Amino acid sequence: MPKALVVADEADERLWTPAVRSLRVDLVVAAGDLPFSYLEHLAGMLDVPCVFVPGNHDPDLSGFTRYGGLSMKDGFPTEWPGPAGGINADGRIVDVAGLRIAGLGGSIRYRDGPNQWTQRQQARRARRLERRFRWRKWRDGNGIDILLTHSPPRNLGDREDPPHQGFSCLHRTIETLRPQWLLHGHIHPHGEPVPDRVAGRTRIRNVVGYQVMEFSR
């Protein structure tokens, strides 16, 4: 069963030390709003892949492609601002360490800035992700293990203040992808216990901070 270090929003100083190697995981999964240097450190110290989606405080990573080992944007080589070696799953479906992960980053739009979307914009992005899933499912028959988001679904672990409202479209995405887990950040517990939510067969978990999770196939 693959084991992951799952992180979001709050860097833990205990993980900045070499002691992080004792966690013995197969990958790092990051749900946004963490320094990219932190993700590089975790992946490097653990010597494992890092899959992430951007949060609303992260730089704009849209429009970058890889060609012949080079990072490209608008047809020209350029430095990728994301974490070195990191796998950006935003709007994509990726297979890493025996897990199939679908990603949808960003938060509700509450001011100008990257990785913020209106409900309608995120719904369009979610529909594209769902189409990619159907094609992949038709091709190889495999389902989604993790739906990795920055924001939670509306009314399933979000808040009522405008910056922390979740996305309504994620309810449909959960029904379509039927992942085992939806992992999200963005909502800071501030020391309060945060129970998992359930939608159909999908368990929804707020992963702000860090935890080690084991995933069955």
From TrEMBL:
Top-level lineage group: Bacteria
InterPro entries with a match to the protein in the record: Calcineurin-like_PHP (IPR004843), Metallo-depent_PP-like (IPR029052)
Pfam families on file: Metallophos
Domain Calcineurin-like phosphoesterase intervals: 20-189
Protein name: Metallophosphoesterase
Organism per entry: Amycolatopsis albidoflavus
